[in-house]
Amino acid sequence: MxxxxxxxxxxxxxxxxxxxxxxxxxxxxxxxxALGFVFDPKATCDPPCEHAGIxxxxxxxxxxxxxxxxxxxxxxxxxxxxxxGVCLRPGKCRCAPGYGGRxxxxxxxxxxxxxxxxxxxxxxxxxxxxxxxxxxxKCQEAICPQGCRNGGICVAPGICSCPEGWLGGACHxxxxxxxxxxxxxxxxxxxxxCRPPFSGPRCEERKKSH
Length: 210
Description:
Elements: H1 6-23, E1 54-57, E2 60-62, E3 67-68, E4 74-75, E5 86-89, E6 92-94, E7 99-100, E8 106-107, E9 118-122, E10 125-129, E11 134-135, E12 141-142, E13 153-156, E14 159-161, E15 166-167, E16 173-174, E17 185-188, E18 191-193, E19 198-199, E20 205-206
């Protein structure tokens, strides 16, 4: 003989009370429902309760753990999603750009920070804070305090990559494949500046005096 009538309603109420006792133990207990509420087994909810919520009185839902709202429609993240994040489902946040982590509590820079840079929120915007010898949005550009002259490129802190014909820390020293003679000075690739009375490509010619 299957249970029916008032006895079955009492059993259902007892089972539900036990369930509520378990579910209300944590900090995520549904709001606005006390343990001593009246449960109506004939209650109807329109719209219906979502996400396994239980209709306890007409148009009153008791939500399962992790959901809230009149029809248990909204997911509840605990702790709450931070920095503008949106709770997609219990314990899962969708984070705003520039933030990451389970609850959007970590600042993240797209593409990461290179060369020892650290991602930090500056006026609400995620930015890479670079060491003193690097710059750029990802700390990808080296700094050469001395500068790189004559078309040189800074490739590492204080180190220039020089075009052919130039040497030195700042690409400031010209290279002449054949040395300048008679006190002449190499002033650009393969070009000598001569001291009087000498001339010629290598300052090898002495001007004749009349």
